[in-house]
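Quick question, first post here. What does this chain look like in 3D?
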Amino acid sequence: MSQPATVTAFPGPTRPQKDLYGIGEIPPLGHVPKTMVAWAIRRERHGRPESAMREEVVPTPEIDSDEVLVLVMAAGVNYNGVWAGLGKPVSPFDIHKSDYHIAGSDAAGVVWAVGRRVKRWKVGDEVVVHCNQDDGDDEECNGGDPMLSPSQRIWGYETPDGSFAQFCRVQSRQLMPRPRHLTWEESGCYTLTLATAGGNALAVISDDSKRDFVMSLGVRAAINRSQFDCWGQLPDVDDAKAYADYMKKVRPCGRAIWDVTGKGKDVDIVFEHPGEQTFPVACFVGKWGRHGGVLRRHHGLRTRASSGSASSASRAATAPI
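> Answer (accepted):
Ran it through. Tokens below.
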């Protein structure tokens, strides 16, 4: 790891103000030039990134009341930038309809301007940017899980204003304080990768003949569900004896998971398919709270049973095979 970055000193307001600054040239703190340099993609240039992305001078984005303009100090490279350049499997222009596309879904930088409704951030704050955007006006964005919002989109891929530019426009809720023990480059490369890195999968199989197959897919371990007698409908909770007997059957399954994850460490997410036969156990073995949950897929529809959000996981249990 590189040496930790120190607090950055930016030019003061007495420095002459210009409408365009060269790459590597930093304007006076808070001065927003009319134009900026960006690596832009245009529909007619779709192809390999080295030809699709060209250095251009474009207007500096204007921000809305809940948005922030960030001076980009470092931008992370992700594969969606390659997709955007290629225009495959879909062209970003078919999504946002803009004349040009600026890729980049990771960034670290400095708050350069804030909208009138932004309270958490001020000019000069050093931040990292995560890539999730939404409209903020539906039930998932207000007490639910914003990742499930119909308006959810990936900044810099499904929007035209990513981080491969001197400045980027983001929603204020995309920002997090920059870790001061990291360099700018290290700060600007991890959020999207971390969010999409997946987890350590724990497969649940119906017999041991399937163990080699699921292990070949990269799971951390596999548990044979036929070794446990805890499947089926949840007993009547008013029948104390029946419920106690049921829980005695469920706990060995939980202990088998702890043998893999460590004692007391429940799985973060359970991917639940069959439903009635396994759903009660899935709820028991999954972590409860803000970062745990059960995702259930039934007849092509995905529903959620959880007390909170589970947007990323360090461990996950798969559905029975």
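The chain is about 20% helix and 25% strand.
The domain at 200-320 is CATH 3.40.50.720 (Rossmann fold).
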